[in-house]
TrEMBL record:
Catalyzes the conversion of (8S)-3',8-cyclo-7,8-dihydroguanosine 5'-triphosphate to cyclic pyranopterin monophosphate (cPMP). Residues 13-147 form the Molybdopterin cofactor biosynthesis C (MoaC) domain. The active site is at residue 125. This is Cyclic pyranopterin monophosphate synthase.
C-alpha cells in the first residue's frame, strides 16, 4: 500500500521503487479575477511591467520543475513536458491551465497544481500595483491520466 506514513506512523516519502514506469499526465487550472481595466491593460500590452502572460508562463514552468522543493514528500521528477497557458476571459478574469507529463513511477498532479498556482501568484504580483483587489480562485485538478489509480476527469465548471 502507498502511504506517507511508515510502520511507526512517521511521515516519509512513498517508495515507488517497485512501481512500473508508465506515461502520466495531469492538467490543473487556476483562475484570477481582476478589474476589467486590469485585464484590458494586460491584453493591449499597456501594462507597465510588460508581457504579464509571458512572465507568468515562465514562472509556472519553473515551479513545476521545482515542486519537490516546495511540497514536502513530493518526489523529484524528470518532467518530459510542461505547458502553461493563460486565457483572458472577458470581462474580468484570466484562466491558467498547466499540463505536466512524464514517463515515470509516480504522478504529476502536484506539479500541474503547483504550476497553475505559481502562474496565478505571478500574475497577481505583476498586477498588484494597478489592482490590489485581484482574487486567485478555483485552483483545481482538471484531469489525470496514467498510473495505478487510473484516470480522472473533473466535472466542467
Amino acid at each position: 500500500m502507498l502511504t506517507h506514513l511508515d510502520s511507526q506512523g512517521r511521515a516519509n516519502m512513498v517508495d515507488v521503487t517497485d512501481k512500473a514506469v508508465t506515461f502520466r499526465e495531469a492538467v490543473a487550472q487556476s483562475r484570477v479575477r481582476m478589474l476589467p481595466q486590469t485585464l484590458e491593460l494586460i491584453q493591449t500590452g499597456g501594462h507597465p511591467k510588460g508581457d504579464v502572460f509571458a512572465v507568468a508562463r515562465i514562472a509556472g514552468i519553473q515551479a513545476a520543475k521545482r515542486t519537490h522543493e516546495l511540497i514536502p514528500l513530493c518526489h523529484p521528477l524528470l518532467l518530459t513536458g510542461v505547458k502553461v497557458e493563460l486565457f483572458a476571459e472577458a470581462p474580468d478574469a484570466v484562466r491558467i491551465e498547466a499540463r505536466c507529463k512524464l514517463a515515470g513511477q509516480t504522478g504529476v498532479e502536484m506539479e500541474a497544481l503547483t504550476a497553475a498556482s505559481i502562474a496565478a501568484l505571478t500574475l497577481y504580483d505583476m498586477c498588484k500595483a494597478v489592482d490590489k483587489g485581484m482574487v486567485i480562485e478555483s485552483t483545481r485538478l482538471l484531469s489525470k491520466h496514467g498510473g495505478k489509480s487510473g484516470d480522472y476527469q473533473a466535472e466542467p465548471d
